[in-house]
Each structure stands twice: as C-alpha cells, then as structure tokens.
Amino acid sequence: MKNSLAALALALVLIHAPPALAAKILIKVDALDGPPIRVFITKPLHLEADRPIVFVMHGVNRNAVDYRDQWHELAREHDFLLVVPEFNDRNFPGAESYNLGNIFDQDDNVVSRSRWSYSAIEPIFDEVRRRFGMTTPRYSIYGHSAGSQFVHRFIFHVPNARVSQIVSANAGWYMMPDFEQDYPYGLRRSAVTRENLAAALQLPVTILLGEEDNDADHPNLRRSPEAMQQGDHRLERGFSFFEAARAYAQQKNIPFHWQLVTVPGADHDNRLMAPAAIPYLLTR
Question: Structure pTM?
Fold first, then answer.
C-alpha cells in the first residue's frame, strides 16, 4: 500500500511539474570545406521566430559546451537563441586554425576562403534559422579570451557578415589596425584590405574589458615582443587596440562606431563578463 501511494505521489509530481524553460540542443553543421562542426544551442520555450540570435565563441580550451551552459540561463532570461560553435583541437589545431582563422597554410599561402574558420559563422546562421524556423535577419556575436580574438579578426575578414552587434571581451592580444605591422599582430601581409578595415570600423563593436583582468603574469598571456608592445596585460592591450582603431578612423575620416566598456570586479572569467555583455548584444 505504501509503495502504491508513493508511486501515485510521484506520478502527481511528474504531471504537475513545470515544463523545461529552455532546451539544450546539439546539432552538426556542414559549414566549411571539411568535417561538420558541432554546435551547442539553447532554445527557450516558445521562442518567437523574430527573437535575437546570439553567437558565443569559446576560449582556448575549446569548451563550447561549458560556454553554452554558462550562457544558458541568460538565453532563457532574455529570450534569445544561443548558438555556440565548437572549433575542436582535432579539426582546428592551434591558434592558427581557430582564433587566427585558418587563413594561411604552412607555406604562408592564403588558403581557400571556404576553409577559413571565420567562414563558418554565416552558414551556421543560415542552418540554425532553417532548423528552428527563425526569421531574424541578423545575429549578434560575442567572444571571450581566444573567442574574443576570433571575433575581432572575424569582422576584419568577413566585412559583409550579417552581424548586428559585436562584443569582443578580454582578448589576450590583438591584430592591430596597422598596415605597417606584419600579420598576425598587424595587417601587413594579411588577407585584410583597407576597404575591409574601413567597413569594420563602422560596425557596432563593443570592446568589453574586465577591470581586474590586469594580471601581467597570467599563464596564458602571450609575451612575444609584438604582444608586449600592446601592453603588459589584457586590460592595457584592450585599451591600446581601441585607441589604435579610433586613431586610424580619425586619420582616414572614417565614421567610427566602436565603444569601449569596462566591467568592475571582473577578471579573466567569462562567467563574470557574459551578463555585462547582454545590453550590447541585444540592442537593435
């Protein structure tokens, strides 16, 4: 009798339990000339077709599922489709293949654009719109750390991307808007044209920096001479990048639509930066 009552109680709990507020979904997308890319997604319950689509680019650990989980409640709370592509180490080995875009081969020749990691974002956008019945015509994109490196280089290399808002958070070092400095620290001998750069400077970009991301001894901080010229730590380097972009735009009389925002109390932690990014990603 006790077992029957317990079973009935459990059944009532299950019947009256509230439905999940957001679904965690994994899909695979043929976005490049190569293996399919796994994409981790959060889709809030009853998401309307015209709600925002937000891409989040993971860091150096290639932990897309962790980034999706860290952003899951934000997607549910603010009612947007969260899209986190995974550029794993096996198919995209090293910084050259992920955050540097897989632009050059081992002989420093430009590879086919269909193999650039930056070229995956637009096809993934088309596929998630199709699969989830979204009508949103543009997307926002956020990256933290190595993902931030991906994002700020992405806008230079894909000037016609259907991106509405860009947030680059806590990059370790930057591709400076300087045609006198060699790639990847500058644009000389890169695949970026002056027209590409002018277009990128007019995009709605937010350079988002943690005010406590100032550890000059951080184990993952690049310390090459070129990186050190940008500053002793990530916070200084972010300011240097923003000021260089603003100076170039002013010199060339290019409309400059970037902004720099700092986050009090935040160090090199995506979980602290992500909530601060929401207002800049969801602006229409």
Answer: 0.92
